[in-house]
Amino acid sequence: MTFEKSVAIIGGGPSGLATAKALAEEHAFDRIVIFEQQPQVGGVWNYSSTKPGNSPIPSNNPSITREWSANGVEDYVSPMYENLETNVIKDLMGYKDYPFPEACDILPSREDVLEYVLNYAVDLKDPISVLVNKAVVNLHKTGSEWRLRSRDLISQATTEDSFQYVVIATGHYNFPYVPDVPGLQEWAEADPSSISHSKYYINNQKFKGKKVLVIGNSASGADISLQLTEVTWPVYRSKKSEGIVKAFEIDDVIEVQEIKRYDISSRTATAVDGTTISDIDHIIFCTGYLYDFPFLKSYMEGEDALITDGRITRRLHRQIFYIPDPSLSFVGIMKNIIPFPLAESQGAVIARVYSGRLKLPSEAEMRNEEVEEIKKRGGESKFHSFATPTDVEYAQELASLVDKAVPFDAGFKAEIWTEEKKNRRVDFVDIKQKRHSEHRERIKRNRKAQETSTQAEA
User: Are 51 and 79 in contact (CB under 8 A)?
Assistant: First the structure.
C-alpha cells in the first residue's frame, strides 16, 4: 500500500499561492489542494463593491456570536476600499523572479495587485489544484490525518477529505476589532448605521458634509481620514500611539487622544484628557483585526489553545508551526511586514519540513523558544508585530534554516535581502508620506477650484 503525502492549504490569497509553489518544488507530495471561498484566488485583494452588514459593537472577542449567512458560512467581505493603494513599493512587494509590470505605479493600486496575483497563479500545475467557492467549515485531527469539511458555496453541498498536513493562509483581516468603551454599545443600539469599521468602508461619498470621528492612527486610519477631507472638514482622528506610517499633520484633520467615553444623547465623544467632540454624525473604527479561525473550534480551549482573546495566535514555533502538532502550520499572520516575499520565506521552510528534508526541534525546545520569543518581542501583544528591521532579520533566520536542508540546491528558495533592499525597506515609509502630501495638495487645489467656480456663478 502506497502512502499518499498530501497538503491542504486553506486560503488562496498571496500567501497560500506562494506556499503551494514552494511545496510543489519539493516534488514530494501527491496532492496540494488550495481551498478558496471566493470565486477566484487573490485573497483580500478581491474587492467587495458592496458591503452589507457590519461588525458587532463591541467586537473584541472572536468567540462571540458571529453573523452567519443562511447556509452556515460567514459572508465574506473584503477589507479593500475603492481608492486603496499599497503601503509597500512595488520593487519590494513582488514575488521572487516575478516583478510587478513597469507600467504599475510605485505604490500599486488594489486593481494592479489583484491582476498581479492572478497572473502569478496562472502557472499553478500538478500536484497543485485549486478549489474555489469552497469554504472550510471544520478541521480536526483524527489519528494521523486531518479531516477537513468544506462547503460548496454554489451548490451548498458539503464534502469531507483527509490530508497529512494543513497550512492555514487565511490572513488576519477577517474579524474586525472594535473596543468596548463606555457608552459605545448604547450608541450602536440607538443609531447602528452611524458606527462602522474600516473593513466596511468603500469610499467617502456617504460622509459628505458630515462630522466624522476616525478611531485609529495606523495606515487605514491615516488614509481614510485623508480621503474624508475631500468631502468634509474638519475630520477628527483619535490615536493611542503613533502608527508605522506616521500620519502627517494637516489643518483639516484634528487629532485627539484616546476616547474614553461616548454619549449618544449628545452625540459626544470624550478623550482621556477631557477633550470633547460633539454632534458627531459618524464614527469609523480603524482599529485593526483579531485573529480568528472559525473552522478550528476544537483548538480554542485549554493550555494549548490557538486563540484566546484573538490578539495573537498562540503556540507557534517561529510564527509558523503549531507546537503541539507541527503538521498544522500558518503563513502570513505577522504584521507590519512585506507579505509576499515573507510568505515565500515561510513557505520554503514549511516545504522542507513537510517533505522530511528539515527537522524541527523537540516539542520541549519549541515551547521554550516561544516563551523566549515573547519576552524578546516585549510581550504577547507584540508577538506578531515585526516592524523594520526585525522582519528582514526574521526572513534571514528562515533562510538560514532553509540552507540546512539536504541537498542544499533542491527546492524553492526565497530571495535574499541585499543591503540595497534593506535600505529601501526603510525609505519606502517616506515615499508613502510623500504620496499623502501630494494627495493633500490635490484636495486643496480641487477645493479652491470649486470655490472659484461657485463665486463665478454667483
Answer: no
Q: How far apart are CA 37 and CA 136, in angstroms?
A: 8
Q: Which residues fall within 8 angstroms of residue 345, CB to CB, at 6 or more apart?
A: 395, 398, 399, 402, 414
Top-level class of domain 6-47+82-175+290-417:
alpha beta
Rounded distance, CA 234 to CA 254, Å?
A: 7
Give the 3-state secondary structure of residue 115: helix
- Find, among 329, 361, 346, the residue nearest to 7 by Cα: 329
The dotted CATH code for 178-287 is 3.50.50.60
Closest CA to 53 of 76, 32, 25: 76
**Mapping DSSP to helix (H, G, I), strand (E, B) and coil, where does residue 282 land?**
strand
pTM of the model: 0.94
What the block records as the C-alpha cell of 181 is 468603551
- What pLDDT is stored for residue 69 in this prediction? 44
Give the mean pLDDT of 145-155: 97
pLDDT of residue 44: 96
Distance CA 261, CA 233 (A): 23
- Burial annotation 428-437 (CB, 10 A radius, 16+ → b, else e): bbeebeebbe
